[in-house]
Amino acid sequence: MSRQRDRWAELTGGQAGEKYAERFARLAESGHDIHGEAAFCAALLKPAARILDAGCGTGRVAIRLAELGYHCTGVDTDLSMLAVARGDAPALEWLHGDLAQLDALGLKPGFDLVVAAGNVIPLLASGTESAVVQQLAAVLRPGGLLVTGMGLDAAHLPLPEPPVTLTEFDHWCTQAGLTLRQRYATWGADPYCQGGGYAVSVHSRPTT
Question: pTM for the complete prediction?
């Protein structure tokens, strides 16, 4: 059975790895902080914690977190992005796979935190979003955190209109047994206001 193409693959044809990496390299060279997502996650738990970077792309977030002392695994469907990640950090675990079928990758449950940055949720294959959230929740330890960042309007997405609303996302999280703990407007933890164009959400799995 063939896997449905995600919105990211439809946009890029699965050949975006080098260009994506070059974009962030230019941002770093111009003085921009490109590690906001990693810093946000690092503020939530201590080094040595297990982190899954879901939709890791070129590995920017996972590599930075590994530098800070976390044990990181990255998963992505885009082989061109994974090729960059493996070249930059060959010692880390990089897995090629569908987030809707994480259980097929043999990942051991018990991650302290799963991060899905970079509009991972809006760029999933249409109709798979609920299954992906279920799979991400399933690999968390009791009390573990799901951290997501997602655009909610065209200005914050590489799409003409948002395919996912916060209401839908929160519903999928509730179905997966997760509870919303915090929501922000940026990775710098600016307060979120209803109707904002971007949301960083922290959901938690129950401790029992």
Answer: 0.89
Query: How many domains does the structure of the chain reveal?
Result: 1
What value, to the nearest 5°, has the Cα angle with vertex 186 and ends 182 and 190?
70
Instruction: Find where tokens 């994480």 sit.
Output: 102
- Residues 136, 146: Cα–Cα separation, whole Å: 8
DSSP assignment of 137-167: HHTEEEEEEEEEEEE-SGGGSSSSS-S--HH
φ, ψ for residue 22 (rounded to 5)? -65, -35
DSSP state of 2: P
Is residue 128 a part of any domain in this protein?
A: yes
- Asked whether residue 1 is assigned to any structural domain, the reply reads no
CATH number at residue 29: 3.40.50.150
In a domain, 2, yes or no: no
Q: What is the pLDDT of residues 93-137, one digit of tens each?
A: 999 999 999 999 999 899 999 999 989 999 999 999 999 999 999
- Asked whether 66 and 72 are in contact (CB, 8 A), the reply is yes
